[in-house]
Each structure stands twice: as structure tokens, then as C-alpha cells.
Amino acid sequence: MAKNPERYPKKKMSREERVAQREAKRAGAPAPSIEPPSTTMSPSSEPRPPVLETPAELKEIFREVPPALSEKYATLKTDREKQSFIKNTKISQQAQAERENEKRGGGRRPATTPEPFVGPPSPDNLPEPAPPVPQGQTPGTPEPRISRVFAGHEILKTRIRKSKKGGTLKRTTDVEGALRKAVWGDEQQVLEEDGGDAIPPEAKGLEEEKQFVDEDLGSNIPPEAKRFETEEQEFIDKNIAARHAADSGELFETLEKGRSRPERTPAEERSYLRELIEKAKQKFEWWKSADAKLIERSKELDAELEKMSGTEKGFRWIGEQYNKLDWKSKLALGVALGVGAGVSSAVMAPTALALCTTGIVAQRIAGLSTMYLKFEGGKPYQEKAAKLFGKEFNSKEVAMAKAMGYTAVMGAAMWGLAYGTKETYQWLMDKLERPIDLSAPKVSTLSIEDAERGADGRAMEAAAEAARQAEKIGIETAQMPPMPEGLQATATPEALAPVYAPEVPLAVIPATPGHGYEYMLKQMWGELQTQNLNPENYPEGSDIRRLIETAPKDIDTIVHKIAGDPTHGFFKLDGTSVRIDLGSHMTIGNDGQVVLVTPGNETFIQAPEGSPVTPPYPPEAIETRPPPPEVREMINNAAASPESSMLEPRPEPPPPAPPSSDVHVSDTLATAPETTAPALETVTNSLGVSIATGEPHIYAGEDAAHTYAYGGSPTEQADKIAGYLKTHPKAVVFGPDETGAYRVPWHLAEGKVIHGPAMRTDGFLSLFSTSLKPPGPEDLRSIIT
Amino acid sequence: MQEEMTAAIAAELGIGEVPIEEQQKLISQFGEVALKATTLAIVGKLAEAKRGEFVKLAEAGDATALKAFLDTEVPDHETLARGAVAEEVRRFKAFQAA
Q1: Is A322 within 8 Å of A330 (Cβ atoms)?
Q2: Which CB contacts under 8 angstroms, 24+ apart, belong to A24-32?
Q3: Chain-chain contact of A323 with B31 (C-beta, under 8 angstroms)
Q4: Residues 6+ apart with CB under 8 A from A650
Q5: Neighbours of B47 (CB within 10 A)
Q6: pLDDT value, residue A211
Q7: Closest residue of B to A370, CA-based?
Q8: Could you report the predicted ipTM of this complex, rounded to two decimals?
């Protein structure tokens, strides 16, 4: 460490010189000096507090001397004790003054640079003229020793607090270190240089002071330091609380949730944090005790089972076997026991026991779980299931019952879909059509019994055949769906292995009027996106994986590619598309390919040769037909008659309404002679909506405010509108007026169906406005009824 | 799917707020209790002479045979099992509330 050449002149004082200096100082004479006077005050030349003889003399030094202090001072015997007492009293007064200053808004001075203490007037510390400052130096304020003692207290306390944080209070070491560093580090250095053979009185005094602090930290710590310690302790408390809070993670967030963060005082904040910590601690303790409680309960049950078993081995094996199961099987077993489905759910104890024993039916239970969740999960699944099975599912309990009843047949249905075993599929579809008594308590027996009887054994044979086919074409068992429990007896051993196949999502997209294969593919994509499926679970290049991985911006391209892929062939090179009949639906096969199921339950991954197709778009080649002469005549006659807003009484049925001139007619119809029954005519508009021109329907337009009537004769349309408005009394349906020439809004008024004035176009600034024609195919977006 | 199943069971047991690892542990432990309680409820209704047969069937892991046996010997075995599970759920929840 570099020494201060001014405070520590290179030429050392000898021992005799130092003794002489001290003696002279005590006698009031100037100390013998070997160097020119220093510009700064060294610790050794600090003014020492006078040793006063009586308490009365204290008053000359201090403005206020409490009686207790005076009495204590009178008991002191040695000079050192008295000096130490005076110093500590001064420290207290200094801290008090600073505190008052802070209260007045003067701010708190840093402890490391306290205001120099001005001691009582005495010969030792009378102000002296400042010595001349040598060139190149700035006049410095001498650092009073007493202030550095105070700073030592600060450091000391900080060290003690740090020790507290660390969990161990190394008091003596810290006291020594703090005081040495802050107060008499320099003196120590002098002593070291001097060989340590003599301890200056100043250093001795400090040593005593250190011991004094050491012995009685509580009463001798300045109030300022005490206050600081209190604040520091609060800070520590908060940090500890925050750390506990961070450790408790979600739980802490949960506890915090719902509570606003009002302005709190530090005390309230501490109390609040402690409360949170306490709650978190209780929760953690509860988890541990809950686990212990369950173990205890398990042992109780073991003991009771042992008493009851009637066999030597008893039921101890249940626990042993159960503990061998993996997490998935345990989960499935829980569901089999009805946990998670409400207390009144059906319970499959035999199945659960069998699972526990062999694990072989885990697949079935896992399948059940999946179905249960899908049925229970909410509307999308319920609606799909309702479409597929023609049934509605409401409560959790019913969902579980449904799942139990359908799991087996669903598994086999998937087999039928995937491997084209039409017989199995047909049988299953027939089975699904049969009503199931949900109120029956033994719904869980349904699948087993049905599977066992299997419609005269056909299902079992079909399932076995499906398994053989799968084996023949090398499909791994892992990709197969779970088999019905009752069918497992005739399946191949591989099919019985308790493996878990990647879940094939339940996604069924029914065909809708006017929509083709690509539209259904897009709907399928949308459905798959809602199921949060992991594409990694499906074969690379499979349709399902491609659909899952496709971003919204690319979906139109991808569905077009899939439709045109030779493995599917629903979009032809000549621009035509295979027609999708109503009643068909699209689903995902077990190999991840898109499967189209026809109304006749035929399944197609690839469009069969010779399938009817729809013409390509744009419609250059579309044949258009003018309105038939009888319609034109009707329009003319109606235009001449007085306008009536009432539908009834209706005139005689006019001929069917003609199709609009700008529609696409499917090629099968375009070539048909005009004598073909109108009811068979369908047209497809530019949006791909297939419209039966010979049948009246209510259609949705571009939004909810536009509902249209179209198709069939005006009378049929009027009847359709009347029927629709009866069930939707607040609706407005746009259709043709009595003349068939104008578009009018039909609505209900006092129970009668009437229409408003003819609709007109906006025109330009209300000019050039023209009447709107009746709704045409291009206005229609989807069929309502 | 496992997450959904876990969430459903955790909700039933009232441990939805517990961290997932703890949930799995508790559900796993509860499953064992539920299975034993179910077995106990059913065995309690079985004639002593039939208990040995039940143990053999259970050990064999033949769910169909076991069910057929119970349908004959303990016709209300599903109700009993349901009640036993419900009772264990109730116990578990009561412990939480304590």
C-alpha cells in the first residue's frame, strides 16, 4: 500500500523522540518536530478529548448533559474510561443532530463523509490559522478521528448484517476488521513499521473502544446506525420474502392473484409478504402430507383386503402390480374407475383390475379416455359425434357412458375405414345407428357384449380379416387403432400388444352443397389446427402431417396440391374436379391419409376412375339457357296486374323459376335435354355453391343480414319463405316479388307474410339508381333450409 | 391427451393448482387407493367361498371373465365400485379442507 509521504515522513521518529513528543504534548508544549509542519492532521496529532474531573465540567463541553450521564461519568476512574465516555457521548449527539437535520429536510449525509465534529473548546482544539498550502496541493479538511470512528460503526454494522445473511455471526472478527479498516488502519501500519514494540495511546484507546463496542453493541451503537440497521433488516426481510415467493412459482402467483397492490406501509408490506410465505409453506406442506396420507390410506386398505381375501396371497399383488404400471396406464386406470368423470360416473372395476394385472387392456381404456374427452370436451366434438352417430351428448356422465359404449365400435370402425373391410364398416355403421339406452346402468357391458355376439360373429371375422390384411401389407401394429376388447380373441398376437398408436384425430368433415373436395380439405385443415396436434407423431409426407404443418397463407396451395396429387386424383389435369355427393364425408385414415367416405359407405383415398366431375372454372364452356317462354309470359302478365303485397290467396302455380344466365351447370346436366325434370337440375355458382334450381331453398348470403329464397316455382318459394318466417319471425328474406321481376324483402307483420317495396341499387349520389333483380345463384353462399 | 386427462382428474380431486409433477404423484397414489377401495367394496360383498375364485380371475387379468363372474355373484358391483371411488374422493377432499 502506498504511504502518504506527508503523514508518514521517510525519516522515522525514534522511540525516544516519540516519548518526548507525547510528554511535551501533555505538558502543553509544542512537540519536538523533525519535519516541517504537515498540512494535514495525522491521527497521532488529533486533539484528544480532555479528561474532566467533575460532572459539572461536562456542562462546559456539552450543551445538554442528562443526569444519568453525569452520574455515570462520575463513576469512571481512569482517564481512558472518561475519554471514551466523552467520545461516545459526542457520537450520540452527532447522530442526534443529523437525525434532526434529516427530519427538517436537510437530507442524510453519507456516513463515509460525516461533517467534521467540532469539539468543545479546549487548548487542544482551538482553531488555528490554516498553515500555508504547498504549491500543487489543495487545502484539505483534516479528518477528525471521532468521525472515522462513527464510520467504523457503520462498516461494523454492515459486516454484522452480512454475517447474519450468511447465517453466522462472526462478531469479534468483524468488529476487529471493521474498526481496523475504518479507524486505525494507518496506526496499525505505523506499528508494523515500528516493529510493534510500542502501542501508541491512540491505538490503545481505540482498542478499548473496540472492546467497549464488542461488549455492548446494543447500548453503544449510535442511534443513526441503529436506525440504519432497522431499515436494512426490513430490506433483508423483503428479499427473503421475494425469494420464497419466486421459489413457490405458480402457487405464489395464485396466491397473489386477485389481490390488488395497494399502497402499503413497510410494516404492512412485511406482514403481507409473511402471509404469502406462510400460505405457500402450508401448501407445500400439504402436498407432502397429502401424499403421506394416501400412502397411509393405501396401507389401511391393504390390511382390510388381507383380512378379507380368504387366500394366503391376498391382494398384496394389487399394489405391487399397480406400481409397475407406467404413468399412462395409471392414468387410464384412474379413468376406468371413473375418477375425473364425476362421482356418479360409470366404473369399470373389472377392467381396471385386469389392466392392473396384465396391462393388456390399456389400449382399450386409453381409447375410452380419448373418446370420453372428445365427447365431454365440448361442442365441436359433440357436434361431430352427433353428425356421425346422429345423437346428442350433454353431460359428463353421459359422455362417459357414450365413450364406453362407443369405444369398441369406434376402434373397429377405424379399422374398417383404414383397410377397406367394407363388411366390418357396414356392420359397425348399422350398429351405430341403433339407439342406445343411456339410462341403462350397465352401459359398459354394451361394447363387450356386442363385440362378443358381433352381429352373428361377422364383426369378429371382419376384424380378424382386417388384422390379417394389416399383417399382409406390413403395417406395424403400433399404427393400428385399439381393437375392441371382445374382438381381441380372434386377432393376431401382434394386434394385442399393449402399444400406443399415435392418436388419429376425430375429424369428420361432411359434404355440403356447393362445396367440393378442396373446400372439405380446407375445412379439415381448420379442424386439425384446433386440435394442437404434433406433426412429428405422423408419417412424413402423410396428408395429416402436411395439413398440420401448413400455415394459413399456404393452405389454398396445399389443398390444391393434395387434391391434384395422383394418390388422390380428385382434381384432374383437364381442370375438372370429381364431384362430391351430399351425404359423403371426409376423415383421416389411420395411415394419416385423407379418406373420403361416400353415402354408400365406400371409402376412397384415391378418386375412382370414371367418377362424375364438375367443369373447370372459369365458366367459358358453360351452357346457359334463357328463361322458358312460360316464365316470360308470367312476368309480363304480372307486370300488368295491380301490385299486391299479400301472398294469399295464391294464383295457380306458375312454372319453375328459371336459372340465372350466369351460372355454371355441371357437365352431366349441361348435356341433358331440356325435358329433364327440373328437380334434378343443379348449378354451381362462381363461389362453388351447388344450387338445385328446381327446389326452393332458403340460402345465406354474404352476411347475416342477407337471407335469400331461391329455386323452384314462385309459389314454392312463397311457401318456403312463409315456413321460414314462421320459425324465424324476426327474419327478413329477400326473394322475388309476385311478378318475379324485382327483389323485395319478405317479412312477418301481424302473422301475415308481406313484402316491402322493390329494392334498388344505390346509384351515384342517388342518381342512376335501378331496381334490383330477384336473388340469383351468384348471391347465394350456403343453404340454410 | 394425457395432459387433458390429468387435468380432468386433478380437477376432480381438487388439486388443479398443484404443480404438474405433484399432480401426477398424487393422482398415481390416489389411483392405487381407488383400485384397492373398489376391490375391497366388491370383495366385501362376495361370499367367502367365492373370494378365492375372484382373486384367481383378477390375477389372470381376464376382464371379461371377471366381469361375468361379478355380474353373477355381485350384481351391483358397479354401484359398489362407484360408491367406493366416490368415498375415497370425498375423503381426499375432506383432508384438503382440514
Answers
A1: yes
A2: A28/A123
A3: no
A4: A715, A718
A5: 11
A6: 47
A7: B1
A8: 0.90
What is the interface size between A and B, counted as CB pairs within 8 Å? Answer: 200
Residue in chain B nearest A334 by alpha carbon: B31
Query: Do β-strands A697-700 and A782-783 pair in parallel, antiparallel, or remain unpaired?
Result: antiparallel
Q: Tens of pLDDT along A408-440?
A: 333 333 333 333 334 444 444 454 444 333 333
pLDDT tens, position by position, A691-725: 887 888 888 887 766 788 888 877 778 888 888 88
CA distance A14 to A198: 11
Partner B contacted by A370 (CB < 8 A): yes
- At residue B34, does pLDDT exceed 80? yes
A165/A282 Cα distance (integer angstroms)? 24
For the entire predicted model, the pTM comes to 0.31
Contact B66 A354 (CB under 8 A): yes
User: Distance (Å, rounded) from C-alpha A380 to C-alpha A188?
Assistant: 84
State mean pLDDT over A31-38.
Answer: 43
- Chain B residues with CB under 8 Å of A331 CB are 2, 5-6, 9, 27, 31
Q: Which band of pLDDT confidence, cut at 50, 70 and 90, is reported for residue A727? A: confident
Which residues of chain A are within 8 Å of residue B21 when distances are taken between CB atoms? none
Cell of A586: 371426409
d(CA A313, CA A333): 23
> Does the pLDDT of residue A99 top 80, yes or no?
no
d(CA A427, CA A446): 15
Burial readout A449-466 (b: 16 or more C-beta within 10 A, e: otherwise): ebbbebbeeebbbbbbbb
Predicted confidence at residue A194, as pLDDT, reads 41
Could you report the per-residue pLDDT of A120-176, keeping only the tens digit for each?
A: 444 444 444 444 444 444 444 444 444 444 455 555 555 555 544 444 343 433 444
Q: Do A323 and B62 touch (CB under 8 A)?
A: no
pLDDT score for B40: 86
| Closest partner CB to B17 (pick from A254, A297, A356) | A254
A429: helix, strand or coil: helix
* Any B CB within 8 A of A399 CB: no
DSSP E strands, A186-298: none
Contact A369, B89 (CB under 8 A): no
Q: How many angstroms separate the CA atoms of B95 and B98, rounded?
A: 5
d(CA A701, CA A684): 15
pLDDT band, residue A448 (cuts 50/70/90)? very low
- Confidence tier at A363 by pLDDT (50, 70, 90): very low
> In which residue are the cell numbers 359407405 written?
A601
Residue A374, C-alpha cell as written in the block: 372428445
Q: Do B48 and A319 touch (CB under 8 A)?
A: no
What φ, ψ does residue A597 adopt, rounded to 5°?
Answer: -110, 125
- What DSSP string describes chain B? -HHHHHHHHHHHHT-TTS-HHHHHHHHHHHHHHHHHHHHHHHHHHS-HHHHHHHHHHHHHT-HHHHHHHHHHH-TTHHHHHHHHHHHHHHHHHHHHH-
Task: Please indicate whether, in this complex, the C-beta atoms of A308 and B4 are within 8 angstroms of each other.
Answer: no
Instruction: Compute the nearest-CA separation of B1 from chain A (Å).
Output: 7
Displacement of CA A744 from its chain's centroid (Å): 51
Per residue in A274-307, is it b (16+ CB within 10 Å) or e — as a string?
eebbeebeebbebbeebbebbeebbeebbebbee
So where are chain A's domains?
1-34, 42-117+143-221, 326-496, 509-612, 629-783
Residue A194, classed as helix, strand or coil, is: coil
* Closest residue to A305, CB basis, from B39, B78, B79: B39
Say if residues A724 and A698 touch (Cβ distance below 8 Å). Answer: yes
Q: Which residue of B has its CA nearest to A313?
A: B55
Confidence of residue A12 (pLDDT cuts 50, 70, 90): low
